[in-house]
């Protein structure tokens, strides 16, 4: 082993400690007297008085082994006791106590490799230990990893459990349940305190007195049970029952008990003899570090441990060799590592300055690697890091976070040692411990124990506000008292934040050590080991989405992401400082060639263009021409077939893959959560690791014979050169397209780390950010409840003392809960929603935007980009806008408006991009754009994008609705119009406010923010070509006909169910679909209103071939809607009267106001000629009823022409009842329309002539025959044939192809026939 500190090599194996041939040379290393003093100083016992120099035996290296044997001699009785463990009176079973995985369980459970950790995987699984006790006092500890439903205690071997009854539910079984705060033994009573994740439960049994008790974190909860059954055949096993996904870890004595209890023995005896030896040897080792030989002066010099250096002195080396010869085997035992080595190192960290402590730790690690075998030091380091993890993760939160800081500093000191760091990174951190745990700061579930009351003595909570931006916040004046409370609360939050920042900085230091790429002297640098492990970590979590036990907890991911971003930006900007051609981290992005050159494994994640194998086949020419990448057809075919084989693999075969977890109660092995044990990796995406690509370097044109073959390597096979590249190899960036700059952005390895960070956000970080908002929502709800209670207290008469007492009690409960939640909210804001965390998410958003922009420039190769880049761009903006308020606002971020505009341009361009084929991502883009146009700031951003892109976006929105998700498109168009339509300026549904004006929980809509600019683009495009408007409007009318018909059919079913005598419950899903169809009908009507307002000539200019047909179809649909909704005591009225939950939006107002807006635009605002045409078409429709128009103003019957309108009937619907939402001018227009239709209807009735049935259209029987088809000669009205020809060219009757349609008049046809005769 090489010791870098000493600059020499020394091997334990090659040094013979007691060689006779070397006696003279060894004893002559230093003066005999000095050597004797030195060895006596080092190897003096800690519990014996120092021996006088004149009476003690002379020590040298020949008799040192004998002296060490005497020093380490343990009492024979203790030795025999340790050797005969398991035969202790009062205990039966193996000496090593574990969970009984062979037969002592019920249900399905997942047990850790060491058989001490267990996770419930069924309804209520039970498991007991392998050892039982029948006499004496015994204790074991349980670490609570999750705080759900569990019953922990003792049972006998005769207890029978099932999926409903566990420990404590049968005779002779006893349990404590900290979730429900009860104790169980057939019956149950209140007992103890509530536990939380990270707590330690001590289970004590006294079989001498027959009592059983429990402790929580070392504090006794009192005697739980007395008079336990004892005697022949009565022995008690530790046991637990736990529900699905709950987890614990047992400590029967394999590690030092966290809270030992005087008089009680752990079930597994500690290695007492080895513990004494290890402590003696540690004392000797510490003596070596504190004493230095001075051969010149012939004396011993006392020194500080931090100043000690291994200088290659033979005496010191041989002394250490003797110590470690005995010490090394002991340091492989977890109990001794935790009790001896861990305690020593923590003491070192506390004794001096951080630099001094780190120096000592480095010296210790150097000596471990120098004098111990590789297997020994690796076992020692593995146990050391596992103990550190356990202590860090489950230590209680104290006000100064001192415990967490203590363990992190020791972790940093260990990882600062290069050789130890590389070993731990390669074999422990990601493989066993899940190093992301070290980057997590857990939230205290008990505010009192975390000291938040002292840290934040004054509480405050914000008033309820929307998280949709500043525009929607309620403005309320702040009193001076509230201002003082808020400022005091903010000061407390700042104190808390500063303490948390200390921990966060230590965590970033750990990542900086793991990302070090300068430590490649003895092999591969740490960064490249980290990249391999990090990619595996991402693969495991990406391939196991939906299988929750496999996932790294999302709260860990959030903290890990922020620390990773901090370390990544540090190294990025550091590289820029030494390489001026590189870019700053503020301008970071992922070059597009990373997505198609196969150098980075994206597992089975979906690409924008579909499967990678499909893209490589269809875009191979583009890869060759733009990126100089040639796909090997044979390799690609093999990869494709392999991928197909995997997809067809039957489920049982896939389930039988070997896994490290042990499943009990079932035949299939099931995985453990990755953060509790070693990871079980899913299969790799094989086509990425086996499909070879041939790459041509872009520096010079090569002939076919000069093409260079480059294999695509898996993460484990890659070297530094494969990532960073070399003189003739661009590494990760091979296949650069011509649109990309030649100079590097940064180190290629940092690009891969950045890519992984973006993937992490997509996997679970965004969902966790949304979940944590629940604390803020709880604060708002309790604040509202408190204000309501205080209002009731003020209004309550003083004589009603009973009510006052109840209200006062409620006020106290709400205040206490708010105090607790406001302090917890401060913790959440400091760890999750701080300004720095917001800037991290904003930086990721900007990185994704640049990456998408650069990828878009590559043309068809854009399809290779993974979908999650677009998802992260959409979701990170949503998180910034919705989750970080009201404390922080997205508008405060630098470059906010520019970022909004860039995101708007991406959404506008790609929501209809043909290169994107995934249904989910296309829907996400559409929904994001629909949300974007709802709010003024983001809508202005859409208006700021280049005109060409705006027009292209509107053109995509106006494409026919068939064969695409038209509902979202329609919502976007409606939101561009909201605020301009007839009575379309409300923020809450007017009919709900009218019936429940005091209800503050009514659904709220965003304030209208119409875009006249985009409306103008829409008008221009509808006028542009002869086919744009007809195809778009025909599809809108088709969807309106479908949506309203579906709605009517559903309310018929609802009405029938409501009228049955037996009690019926309408399915909530059916109610939701019904309301959705109604909302769709209203939105389609609003789009028609917008179209008629912007481009009325589409319907009214009959010089256009399709105008009459569109107008007739529109009139038909409007009359159908009016007749269905306005009929007296009709189906619609009855369903609205039921007021069913889920149908709140269904009412007369939304749909009638939309129809009224269309009629007013046609009959009042249009030109005279257009109004005349619209009136004639409307009146000619056989479904037209003037009574339906009168219904709008609350009139049951049409008024007499020329008379004033009577007052509306208060019992009926009337637009005049909604004057807060409908202006006086709009009401006047409705009255004008009604008068016009009344007059026109009377005139039409007087002028109409009877028509025989033979002359009516045989299709609709509403209009006379007016068209004849050629060449077949069949006839119909023009409206029917024009509508039919929009979708079909075959005749109604004979299915012959219609070549032309000619006008037909009965009189002209009769005269032509007679003249021909």
Automatic annotation (TrEMBL):
Main localization category: cytoplasm
Record field: catalytic activity: S-ubiquitinyl-[E2 ubiquitin-conjugating enzyme]-L-cysteine + [acceptor protein]-L-lysine = [E2 ubiquitin-conjugating enzyme]-L-cysteine + N(6)-ubiquitinyl-[acceptor protein]-L-lysine
Main EC class the enzyme belongs to: transferase
Top-level taxonomic group: Eukaryota
Pathway the protein contributes to: Protein modification; protein ubiquitination
Domain RING-type: 1257-1295
UniProtKB keywords: Cytoplasm, Metal-binding, Methylation, Phosphoprotein, Transferase, Ubl conjugation, Ubl conjugation pathway, Zinc, Zinc-finger
Occurrences of domain B30.2/SPRY (ranges): 77-257
EC identifiers of the protein: 2.3.2.27
GO biological process, one term: protein maturation
One Gene Ontology term of the molecular function aspect: ubiquitin protein ligase activity
Keyword DNA damage: no
Cellular compartments annotated: Cytoplasm
Name the UniProt record assigns to this protein: E3 ubiquitin-protein ligase RNF123
Native organism: Monodon monoceros (Narwhal)
Lineage: Eukaryota, Metazoa, Chordata, Craniata, Vertebrata
Gene assigned in the entry: RNF123
